[in-house]
Amino acid sequence: MTILDRFRLDGKRLFITGGSRGLGRSMALAFAERGADVIVASRKLPACEDVAREIEAMGRRALPYACHVGHWDELEGLVEASYGKFGKVDVLINNAGLHGEQRPHASPVGKAADPQADDLGRELRQGGERNALLQRDARADGASAFDDCVQDR
Hints:
This protein is α/β, with parallel strands linked by helices. Helices cover 38% and strands 16% of the residues.
């Protein structure tokens, strides 16, 4: 038995935000390769669909879903679609992050540098609330949650 044999995810459902490119895409494909079915959420549906096709080519199930996790009103649909297709979620990875114009610009001391921007602390708290919404149902099912919502540092 190899070390990778110990990390089988057969029958597990994995939900990943920011799953259409970069590290999120790599994680989605790696988890599918280990046997997981994957919900691929990102802002652009065609990119999610591309990753979903790669996952399905491995014999796994996939759900591509376009959603901006920075927009609170889009999250309920994402959660409903995920549970509608898979019934439960075993692993949640919050890989999507808010950056650039999507969040207030901060100076090195953490103060909002842009007077038109919202308070940075409030934005970070709201991000935590959004993540809590995504994690709510997943944790109720006993899922693991990995929060890698990296802010620009």
